[in-house]
Amino acid sequence: MTCLLDANVFIPAKNSYYAFDVAPGFWDWLEHVETSGKACSIDAVHRELLAGQDELSDWARSHKGFFFSPDQRTISWFQPLIQWAHQQHFTPAALNAFTASNADFLMVAHAAAYGLTVVTHEVADSGSRKRVKIPDACNAMGVSW
User: Fold this and answer.
1) In terms of domains, do 53 and 78 share one?
2) Contacts (Cβ under 8 Å, ≥6 apart) of 81
3) Same domain, 76 and 29
4) What are the per-10-residue average pLDDT scores of the chain (145 residues)?
5) Full-model pTM
């Protein structure tokens, strides 16, 4: 199983329980799972992490290989994902936020394309119409999370 990590895995870890000065082993472990192909993320998450201008952005900058760009295989999942989102009657703002180069959208498409397991702190909320949640989109696309 290869895990695809959401930004909300990195940021809370850095800010609390796995701070770089408290648990450097966590960040070393991420290097190990990167090289062994057991975990990765996507460029959109990379951009989020770089915005912080802190130890996490330094780590992300030095581990560019951990983050993948959308390719044709990932892009082939855009249409099914968009169709599903439209069928769920999300608000126009929610649909626009989800599909406008959003890391969540790209993450689900990449996971579907490569059979990856998404790791996120989000929880499913199939009744929500104001925000598309990663777990709900994963469920719809047959992606483990």
Assistant:
1) no
2) 105, 108, 109, 112, 137, 140, 141
3) no
4) 96 96 95 94 97 96 96 98 96 93 93 98 94 97 98
5) 0.93
